[in-house]
Amino acid sequence: MRILLVEDDLRVSTVMTSMLQRRGYLVEHAATATAALEAAPCDLVLLDLNLPDGDGVDVCRTLRARNENLGIIAVTARGEERDKVTGLRMGADDYVVKPFSMAELQARIEALLRRAVRTSSAPPEVAEIGPLRIHHGARTVSFNDEEVTLTRKEFDILASLARRPGEAVTRERILLDVWQTTWSAKHTLEVHVASLRGKLGDPGLVQTVRGVGYRLRTG
Fold first, then answer.
1. Burial, 196: exposed, middle or buried (Cβ in 10 Å; 0-12, 13-18, 19+)?
2. How many CB atoms lie within 10 A of CB 114?
3. What is the residue range of 180's domain?
4. Residues 10 and 92 placed together within one structural domain of the fold
5. Residues 112 and 10 in one domain
6. Total structural domains within the chain
7. Of 70, 97, 147, 203, which is the most buried if we count CB atoms within 10 A?
8. For 103-127, how does the pLDDT look when each residue is reduced to its tens digit (9 = 90+)?
9. Residues of the chain whose pLDDT is less than 50?
10. Sheet containing 140-143: order of strands
11. Of the residues 119, 136, 154, which one is the last residue of a structural domain?
């Protein structure tokens, strides 16, 4: 999950970047409105509205016009009701007033990402990927025409990967799909993936993408 942090205060940006990275996010920092608008594509923007070369509200409006599906959370000292209303009307999905706790920010990020998952296109009722057949409605799986019994979490992990067959799916995306959070105990996902591989009988079907997450082999 790639986050663009738009914050001109170096001390604040350093602390936030460190804490977000510890939670597994990839973070790019922009200290100005110009840098924010020139930054690489991302999944979520944390946007300070007080920037040295422009108003963050204008940045918000421009980013929203470029991508209606981009998650934008205004993170600012502007706490007046009129500021919140303006920010939300200009395209922000949420509004956090400084000072705030990282626990609150994390909860708001996860809530925004969950809404994005719910509004994304639903997977087909039955997905066939090579010898793998997944019936989402019945929550059944077969491999080489033999039924495979999975736990609820194992099925959800496989379903998350099957939505993007052949693509590298980040660890954070799988955690969000399955556990509704991007923060989990160490090795929780790895343990479930190991069990899933064993039950499928083909360890290479769910491939590890080092430093990223996992990929469901299509061939």
1. buried
2. 14
3. 126-216
4. yes
5. yes
6. 2
7. 70
8. 889 888 888 877 765 555 455 678 8
9. 121
10. 126-129, 132-135, 140-143, 146-148
11. 119
